[in-house]
Each structure stands twice: as C-alpha cells, then as structure tokens.
Specification:
Layout lengths: L19 H9 L4 E12 L2 E5 L2 E6 L6 E7 L2 E14 L7 H4 L11 E12 L4 E4 L4 E5 L6 E5 L2 E6 L4 E15 L2 H13 L7 H7 L8
Antiparallel strand pairs: 1-2, 1-11, 3-5, 3-9, 4-5, 4-8, 5-6, 6-7, 8-11, 9-10
Length: 214
C-alpha cells in the first residue's frame, strides 16, 4: 500500500498529492522498501473487524458510563469506569490513543496500547502489552451500551454483559516507503503540531513575509 496524504497530519503516509507522479515512477523502477505493519482483529460476538490504527469503545450520550473488566492474556487486570477506552497498534499510538494521553510507541514495536477516555474510577493510566497477549473487555451488567469504532468507523455496539476481544495480527499490512529518513523527520514535526495553539495554515500567516525586492 502506498499512502497519499489527503488529510491534515497523515502519520501513516509520506506522499502528498503533488508528489504522486514521481512516487509512481519510483515504484515502477523498484526504488522503494516495504514496511510491515500489524493490524487489530476485533471480535464482537460472531463478527470480526480489522483495523490498522485503533479500536475505541465509546459511551453513547444518554446511555451512562462504560464499565468494563479488562483481561490481558486471560488474566484479569482490573475494571474501568469511564467515557470509553482505546486499544491501538504501535502505528496507531499517534492517533486517538495519543489524544487520550497514551504513549507514543515506535512503529517497529509489535504491541497493544490501552488508553482510557475520561476515567472516573478504576484503572486510570494507559498501559502497553505485548503482541501475543490478547485483550478482552467484558462490559459489566450496570454498564451503558457503547459504540465500537474501528479506525474511526462505527462497526457495532457493545451492550451490558457483552464482550469485546482484540488481538494483534503482526505483519498484516505492507506499507511502501520511498524515503524512510524523510518520513521520520516529517513525523517528528507532525508530532509537535498538535501541541501548538495554531493550525499549520495559521502558522504560515504569522510567519514574517519577505520584503519586496528580496
């Protein structure tokens, strides 16, 4: 897969639309490397979805807080009471999980990141678990029903008494890299942008304009 950034930050991609013709020429000339990326396999009952960034269990307004018990590798780790929970891959750690206060994890590390959303009780800190430890979230009977989002798309609903299973599938995706060093440098800049009080286009407006004739 060759990603082209049609959005704003675009952490997964290194190519912008105006660079696409040159990128396609380099593909034809086989001047590229392939970077494997893990995927999340998300099970809700008999249904399974695949995501490369994250899965989020999010409180539906009016349904009450999400209350769930977390198990990692079959071992109970504790309970959550909050607006929701995000489980992400390493490459997805810079997306929803990062916004929820989770750690930024190297994309070369196969791991799962668990980040709570607006915790009210129970586990309140994010955690990182290994690739071979499946995650299970069991909604308590008193939990409100929650929407399940995979890579930003609602794929179902988790009801009180139900469960959500998440496991990692290493190397499920193959991403084309034309210049890995350039990609990393761009990401370093992109990671700093969310902390700034201005949008990128606003920063350009604030930059000093060159003097006439210079």
């Amino acid at each position: 897969m060759l990603g082209v950034n049609l959005g704003h930050l675009g952490f997964l991609v290194e190519i912008h639309p105006d660079e696409l013709p040159e990128a396609l020429d380099r593909l034809e000339a086989e001047q590229f490397t392939v970077e494997p990326h893990s995927a999340l396999l998300v099970g809700i009952g008999d249904d399974e979805s695949v995501g490369f960034n994250d899965v989020a269990i999010v409180r539906v307004p009016g349904n009450g807080a999400v209350q769930a018990v977390l198990s990692v590798g079959g071992q109970p780790m504790g309970r959550y009471r909050r607006d929701g929970l995000v489980v992400s891959t390493a490459i997805g750690s810079t997306a929803y999980a990062d916004a929820a206060g989770g750690p930024v994890v190297s994309p070369k590390l196969d791991a799962l990141i668990v980040a709570p959303l607006a915790p009210m009780a129970g586990i309140s800190r994010p955690m990182v678990v290994s690739a071979d430890e499946p995650i299970r979230l069991e909604l308590l009977p008193e939990s409100g029903a929650a929407a399940v989002e995979v890579d930003g798309l609602v794929v179902g609903e988790a009801s009180a008494g139900g469960a959500l299973d998440v496991r990692l599938s290493p190397g499920a995706g193959q991403v084309v890299r034309l210049d890995s060093d350039r990609y990393q440098r761009r990401n370093q800049v992109k990671l700093s942008l969310p902390d700034l009080p201005f949008l990128p286009e606003e920063l350009r407006e604030l930059s000093p304009r060159p003097a006439l004739g210079s």
